[in-house]
Amino acid sequence: MDDRSNIPGISFINQLPYAVNIYDSGGWKDPDNYFGKLTLLGTVAANATTYVQPLQITSVFVVNNAATESPLARYVKTSVDGASTFNITTANEAAMKATFQFIDDITHNTDGQLSAAFKAIRTGTPNSILMETVNYFFSQQPRYTACTFDTYMMAVSAAEAWARSVKRAVINIVNPLGDILRFAFGKNASETAFILGNAGFSAREIAAILKSSFEQSAGQTALVMNQAGYPPNEVVSALKSIFSLQEIASVLRDVYGFNMQRINDILQKAGYPANTIEGAFKSLGGDYANFAKKVWDRLNPSHW
């Protein structure tokens, strides 16, 4: 039986005007997952204090905004550390905002000195001194002195929370959102679609981001959105403002494998007039052109 009664408790003092969640960050040494396995230990109300019982003698705590799950702080409590209180303040909030802005900056200016210097550190510094090197780098940047290795690693490990913060205008960005998820967070198109969907972006917004930031065709965009769970009619509505009708008709044929009648029905329900559908079918040629002529003949009053 797990007995934690001999592990000293920790008080978390929340000085922010909103609630925060306190997590135990188990297995945080995994290089591919800086947060490790997060276990919720408690929630601290705005301007309040909560007593938390650690899961182990040496513990890593991650503090997130309870509403957005955007990271705010990371604390380490070792067996020889006498600390019994951690304060969550506006300084933590400011440091994370600065870090997200830093990510936006280096993504927007990929050829700039700041981006080049940081890339050199990330790729050329031994792991044994990476934390110290990154911390020193930030200390030399007037705009980003509040940033640290911890805040950077939390930021790049929290793409979904970050995207949600952008959606809610908690933070402002200069560079296209998809570019940042792709180049700074290292997310592919499928991961980006899931992240943006969970962050509250509409199917139309997601489709536009996939097209612009990942240079995806209509078929590639539809395939990713289909994998993310969007139904065909919603995908068509999302593609309508950024791809041609002919491209969308091809998507329904090639990606979904729908027959001509099903494609015609979906396009009409999406608001396309019959004569424009006819034109798209004719451009596809073959049986589609014949189908278009038959349908148009039925709809044309002069043929009644």
Structure description:
There is one protein chain. This protein has 304 residues and is an alpha+beta fold. Among the domains are: 79 residues, Sandwich (Immunoglobulin-like); 91 residues, no CATH class. The protein is 51% helix and 14% strand. The strands form two sheets. The protein has a four-stranded antiparallel β-sheet with strand order 3-2-5-6. Strand 5 and strand 6 form a beta hairpin. Helix 1 crosses helix 6, helix 6 crosses helix 8 and helix 7 packs antiparallel against helix 8. The chain starts with 9 loop residues before the first strand and ends in a 5-residue tail after the last helix. The C terminus is likely disordered.
What secondary-structure arrangement, pairings included, does this model have?
Layout: E1 10-14, E2 20-26, E3 37-44, E4 48-52, E5 59-65, E6 71-77, E7 85-88, H1 90-108, H2 113-124, H3 127-139, H4 149-156, H5 159-167, H6 177-184, H7 189-198, H8 203-214, H9 218-227, H10 232-239, H11 245-254, H12 260-269, H13 274-284, H14 286-299
Parallel strand pairs: 1-7
Antiparallel strand pairs: 1-4, 2-3, 2-5, 5-6
Helix pairs in contact: 1-4, 1-6, 6-8, 7-8, 8-9, 8-10, 9-10, 11-13, 13-14
